[in-house]
Amino acid sequence: FDAAYANHMVMAHKDALELFQAATKSSDNDIAAYAHKMLPTLEEHQMKANSLDSKLKVAAADSAAASSRR
User: What is the full DSSP assignment across 11-58?
Assistant: First the structure.
């Protein structure tokens, strides 16, 4: 479950970043301003999601390696 959740967060933040990056080019100044304002937060969340995903993959690989040695 944890790995699936982390992977979902990585993909969801990737999609959100793409949408917000596109929104920065909106002809509606309010939408563009909001997108610019939110991008740093979304990028930070993306980095945290990537980090969690990587840690869980390493933990899973370590666990699999330990199980195969038994």
Answer: HHHHHHHHHHHHHTT-SSHHHHHHHHHHHHHHHHHHHHHHHHHHHHHH
Which of 19, 45, 22, 23 lies closest to 33 in space, CA to CA?
A: 23
Q: Which residues of 2-38 are buried (b: 16+ CB within 10 A; e: fewer)?
A: eeeebeebbeebeeebeebeebeeeeeeeeeeebeee
Query: What string of pLDDT tens digits covers the 70 residues of the chain?
Result: 788 888 899 999 999 999 999 999 999 999 999 999 999 999 999 999 999 998 888 887 777 677 776 6
